[in-house]
Amino acid sequence: MANKISGEEMEELKEAFRKVDIDNNGFICDSELTELFKEANLPLPGYKVREIIQKLDRNKDNQINFDEFISIFHELKGDNIAKTFRKAINRKEGILAIGGTSELSSVGTQHSFSEEERYAFANWISSALEKDPDCKHVLPINPSTGALFTAVGDGIVLCKMINLSVPDTIDERTINKKKLTPFTIQENLNLALNSASAIGCHVVNIGALDLKEGKPHLVLGLLWQIIKIGLFADIELSKNEALAALLREGESLADLMKLSPEELLLRWANFHLQNAGLNPINNFSSDIKLGDFSNSIKDSRSYFHLLNQIAPDGSKEDRAAISISLAGLSEKDDLKRAESMLQQADRLGCRQFVTPADVVSGNPKLNLAFVANLFNKHPSLTKPENQDLDWGRLEGETREERTFRNWMNSLGVNPHVNHIYGDLLDALVILQLYERIKVHVDWNNKVNRPPYPKLGANMKKLENCNYAVELGKKKAKFSLVGIGGQDLNEGNTTLTLALVWQLMRRYTLNVLEDLGDGEAAGDELIIKWVNKTLTEAGKTSKISGFKDKEISSSLPVLDLIDSIQPHSINYDLVKKGSLSDDDKLDNAKYAVSMARKIGARVYALPEDLVEVNPKMVMTVFACLMGRGMKRA
Length: 632
What we know:
Elements: H1 7-20, E1 27-28, H2 30-39, H3 46-56, E2 64-65, H4 66-71, H5 80-93, E3 95-98, E4 111-114, H6 115-128, H7 147-151, H8 156-165, H9 182-198, H10 208-212, H11 216-232, H12 253-257, H13 261-275, H14 301-310, H15 334-347, H16 356-361, H17 364-377, H18 399-410, H19 428-436, H20 443-446, H21 457-474, H22 485-489, H23 493-515, H24 523-536, H25 555-564, H26 581-597, H27 606-610, H28 614-631
Antiparallel strand pairs: 1-2, 3-4
Helix pairs in contact: 8-9, 8-11, 9-26, 11-17, 13-14, 13-17, 14-15, 19-21, 23-28, 24-25, 24-28, 25-26, 25-28
């Protein structure tokens, strides 16, 4: 059944399941369905809710897991119960149904988008890019119309937003900004999509044509990923040591580093709420605990107290004191109370992403973005001193680790990889990567999936890791000498990276084999093709291998790009002769962005070319070869 569901449909199913699974435990129970229908103004009696559960529950455990949710996907299209179910989801989230399909979706599929997200993202982009002269032709974006979907059509806004989230991802010199034609717009959109993929966005089911036509569900999906990456960029211990203030008794810095940005944000909010003498919250959407309705996100009271705790008190020279008024707490109407709270947030420069209605409805994405923005502007944390903490082991992510993590996330693995070692300990992500390289995974008989039992959970994860190593040795024919399942399970950095690298290498080479009618691709074949293509185009550059020191200048890469797409390289921008390190980096930035601009999905970073990192250099030339073979 899963094979009949497109990747785009799968993403929509995951989103629908998440909206119903209020407590995020991976199951839908009768109380969650009751709450869903109640909030969607479609109240159903208890027997009707139980009838829906019984209809969808295949293993008869009185709850619905995601596999069951997928298995009844086709039945959901016509079944009366299912229609009610889908209608409730749409009404709860303020969803607008639209027609139209992407290049990879089935004909006639109905797509949907959130009006609230359109409004929030339009305002955020208008604010973030208001001083950028290259965006004056589309800014400010009217959030109440479909102007946002038109604004991204030429690719400029998307490129700018990517650079805001991850600075220097795109070389500004490669963005076409004036006298745009259909061809130069296509280049901008290629550049945006391939760059978004390089920073970890899942863009498999999004094409340049989709963005040019402004298909709402795809535009909003991509924008959310880009914005979220930017909002979360500094929410990690290696970039903000003051986060150590959130340590709980018995925890180490290593424990804190394993938390996702979402988990850190929730802990940060609760840290300040508890300092205010309040009970903690559970999440940023439907946080209403039995018997404690006053302490929920939806009623704005937690937000009021959070704002009061993080407001500058004037103790720092660069920040004047701001006094937060709590008068709105006495307002009886939820919407009016939320508006009063947002007026106080505005005094902190943080009235972004949510409207009063978004707060009251508990919109999870927008409330998460709202809190992330609060953290980024007013963390109000102090790095602990005089504590027995092993700061020496606090190391940030290496460039290689970040590249591998972004590559995995761009393929849409679930769960999302925040920490390359901690999130691979049960091997589920690695097993998904095997499927991406066409190695069959026996999910039914060989893989243990969460929720894991309280007793023996690690044993179940270890079994997965052993299976992952077995697949690598027997099926993928990887070189895994000295690597065992326990190494993955314990997060051994060197050995985990060794396996992930071979997965990425095989993934890259598979593209060439598909284009070359099954001919086995390897280093020698790539090098031969590169030199042949350069010679035929009249270029003087050539490479002896992926360790060739000439690659540090990026000239062979730039010449190859120009050979694949003639006259694409502006050689006036290329530094030649005796090059300094800065000159080499300048060339490399131009080369990587140009590779992406002509349609090569390159994950390597400019520094990889300058330092001639043979692993990443290989992927650059392999991706360009794939692009060149498509042209041929």
